[in-house]
Amino acid sequence: MPLPYDLQPLRGPRVTLDALRPDDLDDLHALQSDPDVCRYLLYEPRSRDEVTRVLERDAAATHLEKADDYLQPAIRDENGAFLGTMYLELHSVDPDRTAEIGWILAPHAQGRGYGAEAARVLLDLAFGDLALHRVYAELDPRNDASVRLCARLGMRHEGHFVEHMWLKGEWTDTGHYAILEREWHEHRNGGVNA
């Protein structure tokens, strides 16, 4: 696996993924304090102080070398406006070469293809420069938009864990989706749902 890797801006036709910056605080706080956005996330809406700490931590997440290292880049549109964040965490380096992917999109950017494009850019990195074998996503199966995005990316529904965790005062299920390197290349070259 070609590591270490340091995040450089990753560009798609309409989006760029790059490191979070201090001037993203207002937009990141609006995103992470929104109850509708946080509904299916692992945390409750965050205060400005909490988001300030998260921004400092995640802005530094630009280096991949070993298991548990992660990237948390901002998603920006063609004019540089903040649209949300992506997530890629290495779970195994050698020999399994596995990572988890995730995304959070601002409400004004949802339903416009930005999430799919940003995820494709990150999966191209994962299965290209990083030479990963498998990338998976875990999500609340009630999150229809994320379930649809997994399908658009060609990810296979591998499992549904019933009442998998106690979260926000209720038992919640977890959906598990994944795609292999060879499947990603087939998908990108005109496969189903491309």
TrEMBL record:
Pfam families: Acetyltransf_3. Residues 15-186 form the N-acetyltransferase domain. InterPro entries: Acyl_CoA_acyltransferase, GNAT_dom, Ribosomal_N-acetyltransferase. It comes from the Bacteria. PROSITE patterns: GNAT. Coiled coil: none annotated. This is GNAT family N-acetyltransferase. It comes from Microbacterium gallinarum.
